[in-house]
Design a protein that fits this description.
The complex is a heterodimer of chains A (168) and B (536). Chain A has 168 residues and is of the alpha+beta class. Chain A is built from 4 helices and 5 strands, in the order αβαββαββα. The longest helix of chain A is centred in the N-terminal third of the chain and has 14 residues. The chains are: A alpha+beta (168), B alpha+beta (536).
């Protein structure tokens, strides 16, 4: 008894991988001629197409006056308004008898970057920054003291859209 | 004041007040606070700020509520449009030269100018932004008072306090019109012993306390009712704490004791409440050295000493201790039928009266509870008690770390601090509190609830303002626990869990306090029964 064998017709061009591969490669190589969407971070940090919003709220910066002293007068409004309770302030008096912060520390780990501190500040001293690069080697470096806050140079947040300040 | 009542209506609320009452006080009874600056219930009426203008029906012009007496059928409208616009106008004048330095002003948050401007002032100034405000430098008025003329609204409360209450007129209003400022006599200083009150009286941040300057913002402070420990007058005070640290003492009005004022001595005597070198755990002597332990062991050790003491003991108590603590210290010996002797010593100082207020002075006796100790049978013959302690079986010392005498018996010390230095010389018992067999850490006046009895026999409560350090407990708790452990023989000693229970135990067993209850003492205090003679 012999076994009956049914011979199937071999598929033709529609099952060939050669054409599909060529198509895929064509797509791949076509990207060579398309406009680039990647940015060469960290060499390149912003471009015409993409930049941080001026309303970005990042780590803080304390502005200084002409003599390089912090503009802060230790009024105590920012620790009061801070929902994360991340600002430590001890007021004192300087040599001229002016009120100024003896200790001013912001724990950037506790901070929720709401920007209330900037909004409440009557002296326009403390600001949240347009800034996102915050890596450190130790956790305690994330408690920024007054000196460090004053030494920051990044731009400060505008918090709201200048053309639509009331958000209408 | 006559008992005849006058009926009037304030903002549609009918009130009845005695004849002669001022409209502003009648309004308070109707629940209406008429904005005001120069008026203060503790000072003579001046009527200079014009802030309390109200409309009174059938009167042609607005009247100042602080200088108008009530009349029958009067209808006062504090919120009529005429009255409100007049007050808004007054505020606008006051703000012409007032600097916008609220962020650095110590008064911010408790400033009446802020409050009333927020309540009914104009939302914005009509002055040009280039208008140069009047400027005068800060002046040093006295040991604790700074004057910031820029912020002054010339309500003259300080002038009237010094002139009419302290009777030492060193302040005046100098110059006139918009050049006016508060002047001080060129050869005088604001160093009257009660001068610090001008800082409290100032409705704005013009008169500042140097002691409190820049220390805390008003909204950070927690306020607790307390009694001044500075002298035997027993002035009612408020302890302002910030994060568990007492930063300021202010008077709390009590018309029977201190009216609206406290003296500078009392105002400044709060730093010891924040001492950091406190005893934080009970200590018992083991092998010649004091070792920290828990309450159970320390109480048991003390109970053992007391049990073996043939019930003969001497108590040397601080007159700063609460009446409850003094009571339970006594009961440790007395309730068990023992023979006891208690004494206290009082630091003396100079007396300084506030001239215009009868029976109000910084008293020579610088102890808040000397009278309470007397009522409980403690004597003033401290030296004799120290001598008696030499032969006593148990010497119980309550918060007097420097004990001059020695004792053959067991020394139990309950206190807030241990004296500096090492043990006294060896040989026959101890000298200082460091030689105690058992040391109990106790709370100070800011950390516990209790009562003091002032020199006139007024029993007054004070409240806890900050947490106790470590394991420290109120002295009344320590002694009442000890008493419960010892028992009085019939096993009926119930434990005392609260200051109220402690006081009720005291009231039920001491004649002078009989009939008083903790809740009825309230915030103003009640005189102890005066018919009971002071025990010798």
């Amino acid at each position: 008894m012999t076994i009956g064998v049914k011979v199937m017709k071999r598929p033709g061009a529609e099952a060939s991988y050669v054409l599909a591969t060529l198509k895929g490669m064509a797509l791949t190589f076509s990207h060579l001629w398309r406009p680039k969407v990647t940015m060469q971070y960290p060499e390149e940090k912003s471009s015409k197409e993409w930049a941080l919003s001026p309303r970005w709220r990042g780590t803080h910066r304390m502005l200084t006056d002409e003599q390089g002293r912090a503009k802060c007068v230790a009024c105590g409004l920012c620790p009061q308004i801070c929902p994360a309770n991340c600002i430590k302030l001890v007021p004192g008096e300087d040599e001229q008898g002016n009120r100024y912060p003896l200790i001013y520390e912001i724990d950037e780990f506790r901070c929720v970057f709401c920007g209330y501190c900037q909004e409440v500040c009557p002296e326009e001293a403390i600001h949240v920054g347009v800034h996102y690069e915050n890596s450190e080697y130790s956790r305690d470096r994330f408690v920024y003291d007054l000196e460090r806050l004053c030494a920051q140079t990044h731009p400060v947040s505008s918090l709201w859209d200048p053309s639509d300040p009331k958000g209408e | 004041m006559s008992t005849e009542l006058i009926n009037l209506t304030v903002d549609d609320v009918p009130v009845s007040v005695p004849k002669g009452t001022l409209v502003i006080e009648a309004a308070k009874q109707a629940g209406v606070l008429v904005p005001h600056y120069c008026y203060h219930p503790g000072l003579p009426v001046a009527g200079v700020c014009r802030m309390c203008l109200v409309e009174i029906e059938k009167q042609p012009k607005l009247a100042i509520a602080c200088a108008t007496q009530v009349a029958e059928g009067m209808v006062v409208k504090t919120q009529s449009s005429a009255a409100k616009s007049a007050r808004t106008g007054v505020l606008e004048f006051l703000l012409i030269n007032h600097p916008l330095d609220c962020p650095i002003c110590d008064q911010a948050g408790e400033c009446e100018l802020q409050d009333f401007t927020f309540q009914e002032g104009r939302p914005a100034t009509r002055y040009s932004p280039v208008y140069a405000k009047r400027f005068n430098p800060v002046e040093d008025f006295g040991p604790d008072v700074l004057y910031v003329p820029n912020r002054c609204i010339l309500c003259t409360r300080c002038v009237r306090f010094m002139e009419d209450v302290a009777k030492e007129p060193v302040l005046n209003v100098s110059e006139r019109g918009d050049r006016a400022f508060i002047g001080i006599h060129p050869e005088a200083r604001l160093d009257h012993p009660w001068a610090g009150n001008v800082v409290d009286l100032c409705p704005v941040g013009s008169l500042l306390s140097k002691d409190f300057l820049h220390k805390a913002r008003a909204w950070e402070l927690d306020k607790s009712a307390s009694i001044c420990t500075g002298c035997s007058q027993g002035c009612n005070i408020t302890l302002d704490t910030r994060e568990g640290v007492v930063v300021r003492v202010r008077p709390r009005p009590n018309l029977e004791v201190n009216r609206y004022f406290i003296c500078d001595h009392g105002r400044m005597s709060y730093r010891w409440m924040n001492r950091g070198d406190r005893i934080e755990a009970p200590l018992v002597r083991r092998g010649g050295e004091l070792h920290a332990t828990d309450w159970d062991e320390a109480l048991e050790a003390a109970a053992t000493l007391l049990r073996g003491a043939a019930r003969r003991g001497v108590v040397l108590a601080s007159p700063r201790a609460s009446t409850e603590a003094l009571f339970f210290a006594r009961e440790l010996f007395r309730a068990r039928g023992g023979d006891w002797r208690g004494a206290f010593q009082v630091v003396m100082g100079e007396e300084a009266a506030l001239a215009a207020v009868p029976n109000l002075a910084l008293r020579a006796e610088r102890a808040p509870n000397a009278r309470g100790a007397e009522l409980l049978g403690y004597g003033r013959d401290y030296a004799a008690a120290v001598a008696a302690a030499e032969t006593a079986a148990v010497l119980l010392v309550l918060d007097e770390p420097e004990i001059a005498g020695r004792t053959q018996g067991a020394l139990i010390y309950a206190g807030t601090v241990l004296p500096a230095g090492g043990r006294g010389e060896a040989g026959g018992g101890g000298g200082g509190a460091r030689d105690a067999q058992v040391v109990f850490p106790i709370a100070n006046v800011a950390e516990e609830e209790g009562t003091f009895v002032n020199r006139d026999g007024r029993v007054q409560r004070y409240f806890q303002a900050k947490p106790t350090p470590g394991m420290a407990r109120p002295a009344w708790w320590v002694f009442s626990e000890l008493l419960a452990i010892l028992g009085n023989g019939d096993g009926t000693e119930a434990r005392v869990a609260t200051a109220a229970a402690a006081f009720d135990r005291l009231a039920s067993s001491v004649d002078a306090f009989r009939g008083l209850s903790y809740t009825h003492l309230g915030l103003a205090g009640v005189p102890a029964s005066s018919t009971v003679p002071v025990p010798a």
